[in-house]
Amino acid sequence: MKLYNSLTRSRDEFTTHTPGRVEMYTCGPTVYHYAHIGNLRTYIMEDVLEKYLRWSGYDVNRVMNITDVGHLTSDGDTGDDKMLKGAKREHKTVMEIAKFYTDAFFADCEKLNIRKPDTVVPATGCIGEFIKVISSLLEKGYAYEAGGNIYFDTSKLEKYYIFNDFAEEDLAVGVREGVEADGNKRNKTDFVLWFTKSKFEDQELKWESPWGLGYPGWHIECSCISMKNNGEYLDLHCGGIDNAFPHHTNEVAQSESYLGHPWCGFWFHVHHLNTDSGKMSKSKGEFLTVSLLEQKGYDPLAYRFFCLQSHYRNSLVFSYENLDNAAAAYSKLVARIARLEDKGSIDGAEYSRLRESFKAAMDNDLNTSLAITALYDVLKSELSGAGKLRLIADFDRVLSLGLIEAAKKLGADKPDGDIPAEVSELLEQRKAARKEKNFALADELRDKIAALGYAVEETREGTKLRKL
Ligand code: AMP
Ligand code: ZN
After folding, report:
1. In ligand 1, which atom is closest to the CA atom of 27?
2. Which residue is closest in CA terms to ligand 1's atom 11?
3. Which of 12, 284, 286, 313 has its CA 20 to 30 A from that of 38?
4. Which CATH number fits domain 2-270: 3.40.50.2000, 3.30.930.10, 3.40.50.620, 3.40.50.150?
């Protein structure tokens, strides 16, 4: 499989330290608020990658952290702890906030068919490990104490900027606009491993350490949680593209200095979901969550379909119009699958040819949009209904669009026999018209559907058809 590797800036053949086994690590959410659908784009694409590796025969061990301490509002080691900010906003304790939003995150993941990683570790559950690694970095001369905090000394590295996609001067924390310089740092790129002195006296969670009562920096969490649960050699590290610097850059600095050998061979970065006014965020514009999409009548899996239609290394622009198109295509796809009959013998050669074209798409740097084309090719093919259903179920082990389940549900909801394609299509157009509050068009479409012999009924479970 060819996969773009941010470390080499090229599409490399994916290899692992132990043949057949993938040690995979994912930066988890900072649980101070709901995840927005941009965050979830990253988790959807990582889920597809994990499932494709399993589909290809790898044994995958996937580890993820939950950031419940240490992630400051600025990546320059200044600003509030995001968790504390969330707790203040809701008049709750940090641990209450962490529990609530961790559960909310996994509930969103479930709706989007994102598998829960094999191991999920909250940062607050790993303090002893952070202290062990920081102590060792101090002993080896890679860290120093200044002004009460422990810093990583980036001047001790042969190479600090390992992801070369960026211009150094654009990145250097401390020289960027809006980032306050920290006078304790020996070099502008140094970063905090352990805080005992922060400007914020009300930091709620603190632990005893050899350097005084304090709390860990954000970057050390991921290094330690991965090294403890994936072992010394990590095959694949994932995250959103904004994590590449400084977070992942700092993770590599710490882990390799601690281990004394190269740490992770492949870095997979998902590009952002943007709105037309820029990067999606929790504080700017409409706060787009899975629940909000549901309230507006969208199936979360239609959002997953929307994400899979574009490549993970292109930024993706969200608009309701784009989502409507994806939702309409998704329902049509499900309707087509629902019309298949599980009958007929399977032509082995045709089955393999179609499966190969799906595999070729995914092997080509996880080209999910081509993989979806391969799925449509199955529907168009000469395979029997039974063959098509089997192959679609096989692809959906990776795509996780719930296609077979949704088609079965649609089949069960069918009034009398199959709904003609023309009627299903008119019904989709009518749903879109209602969403846009174009009731005149919706009425017109209802009449057209009636002329074809079906009554449209609005029920609590949604729109249904009844044979006239
Ligand atoms: P956070 O909860 O802020 O730590 O972010 C969780 C994940 O979402 C990280 O991997 C981020 O890189 C990723 N992320 C943040 N914003 C976006 C966005 N607009 N589009 C896609 N991924 C994002
Ligand atoms: Zn991380």
Report:
1. 10
2. 240
3. 12
4. 3.40.50.620
